[in-house]
Amino acid sequence: MQLITGQTKLLGIIGNPVEHSLSPVMHNAAIAHLGLDYIYVPFPVKQADLETAIAGFKAVNLKGFNITIPHKQAIIPLLSEITDDAINIGAVNTVWRTASGWKGTNTDAEGFVAPLKNMSRDWTQITPVILGNGGAARAVIAGLANLGCSEIHVVGRNPDKLARFYQSWSHTPNITSLLKIHNWDNLASLISAADLLVNTTPVGMSPHTDASPVDADLMQKLKKSAIAYDLIYTPNPTQFLKLAQAQGATTIDGLEMLLQQGVAALKIWLQQPVPVEVMRNSLRDCLY
Ligand code: NAP
């Protein structure tokens, strides 16, 4: 067991609730593997206590931390600087210390894109279709824009929310110009056109493991050459990915994004390569 002393450097995650976060599992596994004198601790922090908690982190010399619900937006005014990804997504999930104060970014976009970067595709020529227009879809859009996609199709079930979602990108004209918004009724034609089909809805998540945002009949329209990417990581694979596999499509599960957003954060804090396979295995052991 790791010996914690007065020299041990602190990392952590704040949220409410934070008890079920998998971040301590993967980060402490990596720290142990690297033999570093760090520890990553979950801190349950209520909304009303956020400012006090951040001041306390400075006082106890925390090196960096992750942020989860409900603080991903509320943290922004408490930071001295945020990255373009955090501006585009409108939320921060990773913070570290700089000479001028706390700096924040959002590693979800990088985490989403990481498994795609290993695939040889001309990303400027593909048609990506995103199912759902919630918080996770924002990171997917930012990631696809970084990848060089020249159009990004978003499908949602609520026209009012879809219109507000489109409006919410008005501060980033370079992304707004890529976005094409569609109602769920147009799904059939979009599935046949999709080279990358991403599920950012919770449909199919445990315990509703038989559900899929795209039914079996519609999934038959998916090209064999397409990539199906589900952000859900329990179950693994989801029904959505099973149907896509049956079509011969390439599939990516949500564990990769969860893992890679953590990998990106840990690299920022440690400024050195991190053991990705150790982190992946720690998540698999914990989840499955
Ligand atoms: P969210 O903000 O609540 O957004 C969910 C979206 O899905 C909304 O657009 C919602 O539409 C839509 N939706 C919900 N039920 C639907 C249904 N039956 N049919 C069609 N659309 C439906 O949630 P989120 O934070 O984006 O998270 C979404 C999923 O991604 C969750 O399963 C989460 O676990 C997963 N996730 C994974 C990672 C990872 O690292 N792998 C990271 C983030 C999120 P309405 O707005 O109309 O309700």
* Percentage of residues in helical conformation: 25-40%
- Extended strand count: 12
C-alpha Rg, in Å?
Answer: 19 Å
Shape by Cα distribution: globular
What would the average pLDDT be, to the nearest integer? 97
CATH topology of the largest domain: Rossmann fold
Largest sheet: 6 strands, mixed
- N- and C-termini, Cα separation: 24 Å
- Mind telling me which CATH architecture of the largest domain this is? 3-Layer(aba) Sandwich
Q: How do the helices and strands follow one another from N- to C-terminus? A: EHEHEEHEEHEHEHHEHEHEHEHH
Structural category: alpha/beta
Order of neighbouring strands in the sheet with most strands: 2-1-3-5-6-4
- CATH class of the largest domain, please? Alpha Beta
How many domain units? 2
Unreliable stretches, pLDDT < 50, 5 or more residues?
none
Strand content: 15-25%
Q: What is bound: which ligands?
A: NADP nicotinamide-adenine-dinucleotide phosphate
Q: What's the helix count?
A: 12
Name of the CATH homologous superfamily of the largest domain: NAD(P)-binding Rossmann-like Domain
